[in-house]
Structures are given as C-alpha cells and as structure tokens.
TrEMBL record:
<dbReference type="InterPro" id="IPR035919">
    <property type="entry name" value="EAL_sf"/>
</dbReference>
<keyword id="KW-0472">Membrane</keyword>
<feature type="transmembrane region" description="Helical">
    <location>
        <begin position="159"/>
        <end position="178"/>
    </location>
</feature>
<dbReference type="Pfam" id="PF00563">
    <property type="entry name" value="EAL"/>
</dbReference>
<dbReference type="InterPro" id="IPR001633">
    <property type="entry name" value="EAL_dom"/>
</dbReference>
<feature type="transmembrane region" description="Helical">
    <location>
        <begin position="119"/>
        <end position="138"/>
    </location>
</feature>
<feature type="transmembrane region" description="Helical">
    <location>
        <begin position="215"/>
        <end position="233"/>
    </location>
</feature>
<protein>
    <recommendedName>
        <fullName>EAL domain-containing protein</fullName>
    </recommendedName>
</protein>
<feature type="transmembrane region" description="Helical">
    <location>
        <begin position="20"/>
        <end position="38"/>
    </location>
</feature>
<dbReference type="InterPro" id="IPR043128">
    <property type="entry name" value="Rev_trsase/Diguanyl_cyclase"/>
</dbReference>
<feature type="domain" description="EAL">
    <location>
        <begin position="508"/>
        <end position="759"/>
    </location>
</feature>
<dbReference type="InterPro" id="IPR050706">
    <property type="entry name" value="Cyclic-di-GMP_PDE-like"/>
</dbReference>
<feature type="transmembrane region" description="Helical">
    <location>
        <begin position="184"/>
        <end position="203"/>
    </location>
</feature>
<feature type="region of interest" description="Disordered">
    <location>
        <begin position="324"/>
        <end position="354"/>
    </location>
</feature>
<keyword id="KW-0812">Transmembrane</keyword>
<keyword id="KW-1133">Transmembrane helix</keyword>
<feature type="transmembrane region" description="Helical">
    <location>
        <begin position="92"/>
        <end position="113"/>
    </location>
</feature>
Length: 763
C-alpha cells in the first residue's frame, strides 16, 4: 500500500500511548465559547472564527508531521510509475493539511469581512476546501468497490434519511433575504453532506482511517455550506453557532483519520442502523416543532419533500424481497458486506490442489459465498516443519496434511491447501467446537511425516477467527494474525483473534523493525534506582535499569524490549552495552569517594554464554572498579531451565569477587530447593511474599529472611511502594530495601544529587 510508508512512522508516535489532551482542550474551549455565544456576550461569527481556528491549528499540526517524516521502509522508487506511487502519500498528507488550514482561514476571516462580502468569502473558502479535501481523499487507500447490487442497496438506504435531512435543512434555514431556489439548493447540499457523513460514521468501515477522513470532510463541508448560506449582516444571529460542532469535529476527524490510515485496518463490523433510522426523523420532528412555535406552517416544498421520502422506502423493500428470492434470506445489510461476484463453489467440501495461489483464492471465494449472517469459524494452520524439504516433498507433506485435516474435520467443513504455507478450514461449528477442532488438528498434524524416504516433524500453530459480517480478506487476516500469535507463544497451540491481539501484534512488528541498530543510533539509556539500608535509610548501592528512547515508539521498558531482543538474537549486544555503561557510571561515582555497588540485570542467555565471565572481568579492569562493587542479578523464574550452567557461571563470578543476586524470588517449594545450589550473595524478594494467601497474620517474609540468614545471604526487599511495606520489611529483618517509597529510578545526575544528601556514603 503506497500510503503506508509515509504514514507508518507517525501513528506509532502520535497514537500509541499519546494522551488526547490537546483535543480535549480544544473541545472544552469550543464548548465554553459556544455557550458564551448562545448567551449573548460573544458574537456568533466570532465564536465560529475562534473555534474553527483552534481546531484547524491542532489538526494542521497533526497532519504536518505526516508530510515531514522520511520514508525509510522501502528503497528509492525505480521507474516513473513507482515514483508517482511513492509521491501519493505525501500528496495526500499535504492536501489534507491544506484543506483543514483553508477551513480554519475561512472561519477566521468571516468576522473581518464586511457584511456584503461575507457570503462571497464563505463560498470561496468552501470551494477551495472542497477541492483540497477531494484531492486528499482520492490519494488515500480504499477498500475494493462493492458490486452494483451493493451500490443500489447503499443508495436506497441513504435516500430516505437524505430526504429527511434535506427537509430539516429547508425548515430551519432563514427565510429573510434568501430566494426559494437558493434556499432549496443549500438545503439539498446540507442534506446530502449530512447523510453522507452519517453513512460513513455508522458504516462497517467506520473505525478505519479512510472512513474517518471522509466523515470529517463531509462534516467540514457541511459547516462551511451552512456558514455560506447564512444571511449577510446581523440577520444571521445565533444560527451561525450551528456550524461550530460540525466544523470542529470535522477537521479533528480528518487529522485522526490521516494518522490512522496506515495502521492495520480494523475488522469490518455490522452497520449501525439505528442512527440512520432514528436521527433523520427526530431532526424532522424538531424542525417542524420549531417552525410551528415560530407561527409558520409547512409550505408546498416541505410537503413535497416529506412525500419524496416514501418512494425510496418502497423501492428498498422491493429490492430486498428480490434479493431474498434469488439469494436466500440474508438478514443483513448487503451494502455492508457486498463483494464482487465470484463463481459459486461446489457444495461438497473443497480440497484444493497445492502448487499455486488457487488455494487462497478459493478460500476467499468460499467465505464470500457463505450466507449471512455467517456462523462458525475460520482456522488457519501453519505446519512449521523442522526441516526445509524440496518442492516435491513439500507437496507430499501438504497432501498428507490435508488428508489428516479432512479425517478430523466434520463432513460439512471445508479444507483448503494454502500452497505450501499451511492449510485452512472453514467450520460451521460454534466457538467451543471450533476450538476443539483446532486441538484435534494440532494432534493430527504433529505426527511425523514419512514421505520420499524422509521423516519430517512439525510443530503446527492454529489461529481462529469467528465468522461474522466482515469481508473475506479481513476474516483471513484475523485468523492469520491469531496464527502468528500462536507461533510467537511457542507453537503447538491454538489462539483466538481479538482486537487487542491485533494491536499487540502491530506493536510487536514495530519493535522488531526499530530495535536493530538502536545501540548504534544511541537510543539506549540507563536510569538508576538507589538501594537503601532500612536501618538508617542511607544509600548502599544502585540498580541499573535499561530504557529504550525511540523517537517513533517512545520509551520502551525491559519487560517489552527483552523478549523482542531475544527473538532477534541481539540480547547479547544490548547486554554488552548495559554492562559497559553501568560500570562507567559506577567508576565516575567511585572517583568522588563513594563506596556503592552497582546491580546489573542479565538474562539467562547472556549469563550462559561462554565469554560472559571473562568479558565481565575485562570491563571491571578497564574502569578500575573493585569486583565487590558489581552485583550480577538473574531472575529466579528463568533459572530452572539452565540450572547446571547457571550454577557454573555464578560460581565463576564469585571466584573473581563479583557478588551475585537472585531476583524475583517467589518462595515456592522449587525455589527453596534450588536456593541451596545457587552460589549467590543477595536475595531480592518482592511484596507478594510478605503474606501467605493474603492473610496478614501469617507473614512469610520473616521465614524467608531466616532461611537466607542460615544460608549466609543478605535480603533486599524490592518494590516497596508504601511506608507500611517498608516498616514490615524492616521488622521482618530485611537489611536493604528498594522501591518508589524510598527512591524512584532517575537519571545519573538526579541520583548523584540524591547522594549529596548523604556525605558519608559508604558500604
């Protein structure tokens, strides 16, 4: 998708964990000014100018970032067509940015223009904004176009609400100084824009970036048409305030959609039918009541518009009956699920011959041909063969896998070979039975494959997506995302799709893309959390904590960073940097006469590498640090898998004088058993071991402290976040403490300033 490249970096930075404070401030500012305009202290046109300028400034700032971000995801385009496609994203961002700025300028100049030139200025701004919005929307990616029948259904669905909104605009527009043809033309424009915005914001793609851009464009044009239709001079009155909500919401929606357009498209959902059925009639009733209160009766045009809403309703029912008689009962909105016509598959379960792209094509066709509302699930399976066989062997394995899948699936289920990448199953069963089918597929497909004299083994992963009203491409994408999640979690498992899963996977892909080269780019940083003696609250050491300051992703913490680094096999590179930077900082503090220790966390993969012990000794020698000033921490839950090697490495460190610590101690039976075997000096326990089963009268921390004293270990109570926890740890016999209640993690400069409060810092 050509637009994705320029929009890719921006959404992660401006949406991931970004608070919506600026938008909230603009909306609050708009509400206050609108209230003042309705009460009388502020002129209505001044309110339109101020709110429009504020919203357009914020939207323009959001969109301007998209035009400045370099495209680093692909190489330089080759050829004229490639260069034209590469230029489309920036053109879309620039046009949308210019459109919101033009809308803001149009609203801002209205109070400054004289009464005679005010309609002309509004019309000029409307035309310019419409042209810029049209160009920007055409440059955005769109879904495939629906069929002719789907377009007809969409047109009939919007006809009756559109007529109601046109009637509402006709009744509410001012009479004075406006001719009937002009008033009718403005009413038609307002009604069409309103119904288009309503259809976009309630349709199945309402959460996509393109839909938000289009809905925001319609709301913006609706506000400008209303402003242009107001009478010149003071006759406009408070009617101008009606343009404030659609103008502010419109430009903010355009900016939000532009930032979202390159993210993974959300699944198509069911059309929200109640706003289309309820809001237009309610608006008509409100307009009629307003006109009757003003002492006016509906004129001939209003009556004709009311009668014009009847034929679209009749036509829609007739078309729906015709569709039901030819295609069977659907019970759904064809405009929401319409796809291009495809050949009807055979009623028998389909087994596609491997060797080409026809497997996925047939799968999508089968999904498109299922009656609505569809029930069941789509299962996508990846075999993950342990070896990479040749093409002929892969074909034999695929045929055998399809045969096994057919044996465990129900008679009405459909099985598809995905041309070497796995297979897919369309099941008509409910969620529980579909998950059971996934478990049976794991068992059947995990058995060894004996083909062409070779024995191949597989560790399959299965992803499930519940069939709904989404288009076939979205359903396949959802099931495949769940399959990728199952593979990330270790394979041999079944995973369901959900929206949170998709967000996490997109975040994971961003991390995998940005993490390589983070050390070379200077994006890594360390913060330090002091460790204090609980008796005198004096600092005795610090713990180095890794932070990744990425300009796109923001600050990434180790819990999210390290699993990605392990999968990319660059955890050793990060560990080398952390150890070197921490020892350098410790050397700087030691020059000042302080005697502190520095604790550095290492992963099991780092600790078990053959060169870890000599490399650590070389770093200490390079910076002139005493071995007893360095503490190597390893997490207790990860130790059991490599216990013999971990014991050997820790013993090697202690033989050099380097102190070792066991972090995250859980005080379970297995933990106490392996505690005797580990050559460690410090034991770090969290607040979860302070009580047994949540009973405050049965403390466990004092038991852990007693065991540690018998083994010659010193206990550090970590994650102390309240004065009560600090006092409990001290009473239990913990010598040291660490946590937010004592000192928060901070940069080296702030930690050094904290040390200045203790002139005689010593070990």
């Amino acid at each position: 998708m050509p637009v994705a490249s320029v929009f890719r970096a921006a959404p992660s930075r401006v949406t991931g964990h970004r608070p919506l404070l600026p938008e909230s401030c603009v909306l609050a500012f708009t509400a206050v000014l609108t209230a003042l305009g309705a009460a009388g202290p502020l002129p209505a046109l001044a309110v339109v100018a101020l709110t429009g300028a504020a919203a357009s400034t914020l939207a323009g700032a959001r969109l301007s970032r998209l035009t400045l971000i370099p495209d680093s995801t692909t190489g330089p385009p080759v050829g004229r067509l490639a260069r034209r496609r590469a230029a489309r994203p920036r053109r879309a961002a620039a046009l949308l940015h210019a459109a919101v700025v033009a809308a803001g300028l149009t609203a801002a100049v209205l109070p400054l223009a004289s009464a005679g030139y005010r309609p002309a200025a509004a019309v000029a701004g409307l035309v310019g904004t419409a042209a810029l919005l049209g160009g920007g929307l055409l440059s955005l990616p769109h879904r495939s176009r629906p069929s002719v029948r789907g377009r007809l259904h969409r047109l009939l669905d919007q006809a009756a609400p559109g007529v109601c909104l046109v009637l509402t605009a006709w009744l509410l527009l001012p009479y004075a100084g406006v001719t009937a043809p002009v008033r009718l033309a403005v009413a038609v424009a307002l009604g069409l824009l309103a119904v288009d915005a309503l259809a976009v914001l309630t349709g199945p793609d309402r959460h996509s970036g393109s839909a938000r851009c289009r809905g925001g464009a319609m709301l913006t044009l609706l506000a400008l048409v209303l402003v242009a239709a107001l009478p010149a001079g003071p006759a406009a009155g408070r009617a101008a305030l009606l343009a404030v909500p659609p103008l502010v919401a419109g430009v903010l929606l355009v900016a939000a959609g532009g930032r979202q357009v390159a993210q993974v498209a959300p699944a198509r959902q069911a059309t929200l039918r109640w706003p289309r059925a309820v809001l237009p009639p309610v608006a008509v009733v409100f307009a009629v009541v307003h006109q009757l209160q003003a002492g006016l009766l509906p004129d001939r045009t209003a009556v004709l518009l009311a009668l014009a809403a009847v034929p679209p309703l009749v036509m829609r029912e007739l078309v729906g009956v015709a569709s039901t008689s030819t295609d069977g009962p659907t019970g759904t909105d064809p405009a929401a699920t319409a796809v291009d016509p495809v050949p009807e598959p055979s009623t028998a379960p389909a087994v596609i011959d491997p060797g080409g792209p026809t497997g996925r094509v047939a799968l999508l066709r089968a999904l498109a041909s299922r009656p609505e509302p569809a029930c069941g699930a789509l299962l996508v399976v990846d075999l993950h063969l342990t070896e990479l066989p040749g093409r002929l062997v892969r074909d034999d394995v695929a045929a055998e896998a399809v045969r096994r899948a057919r044996a465990v699936a129900a008679d009405e289920d459909e099985v598809f070979d995905l041309a070497g990448s796995g297979l897919a199953v369309i099941s008509g069963s409910g969620p529980v039975l579909a998950y059971a089918l996934g478990a049976r597929l794991l068992t059947a497909l995990s058995r060894p494959y004996e083909v062409s004299g070779a024995v191949l083994r597989s560790r399959p992963s299965v992803g499930l997506a519940e069939l709904g009203r989404g288009c076939p491409e979205d359903l396949f994408r959802q099931a495949d995302l769940a399959r990728r999640r199952a593979a990330q979690l270790g394979r041999d498992r079944v995973e369901w799709y959900d929206a949170y899963l998709e967000e996490q996977l997109v975040r994971r892909l961003d991390l995998e893309r940005e993490l390589p080269g983070a050390v070379a780019r200077g994006e890594l940083d360390l913060v330090y959390q002091p460790v204090l003696g609980l008796a005198d609250r004096a600092p005795v050491g610090t713990e180095a904590l890794l932070r990744w300051r990425n300009p796109v992703l923001g600050t990434v913490f180790p819990a999210e960073l390290l699993p990605v680094a392990e999968d990319l096999d660059i955890v050793g590179e990060l560990g080398v940097w952390v150890l070197d930077r921490a020892c350098r900082q410790l050397a700087d503090w030691t020059v000042g006469g302080r005697r502190l220790w520095m604790a550095v966390n290492v992963t099991i993969r780092e600790l078990t590498s053959p060169d870890f012990v000599p490399r650590t000794a070389a770093v200490l020698e390079a910076y002139g640090i005493g071995p007893d000033q360095l503490v190597i921490e390893v997490a207790e839950p990860k130790v059991a898998a490599e216990l013999p090697t971990v014991v050997a490495r820790l013993a090697g460190l202690r033989s050099m004088g380097i102190r070792t610590a066991l972090d995250d101690f859980r005080a379970e039976q297995a933990s106490l058993t392996q505690l005797r075997r580990l050559p460690i000096d410090l034991l770090k326990v969290g607040p979860e071991v302070a009580t047994v089963g949540g009973d405050p009268h049965r403390p466990l921390l004092d038991v852990v402290v007693t065991v540690a004293e018998r083994l010659g270990l010193e206990v550090v109570a970590e994650e102390l976040e309240s004065a009560h926890q600090v006092d409990a740890a001290h009473r239990a016999g913990c010598r040291y403490g660490q946590g937010f209640e004592l000192a928060r993690p901070a940069t080296a400069e702030r930690v050094e300033a904290f040390f200045e409060e203790f002139p005689s810092t010593s070990r």
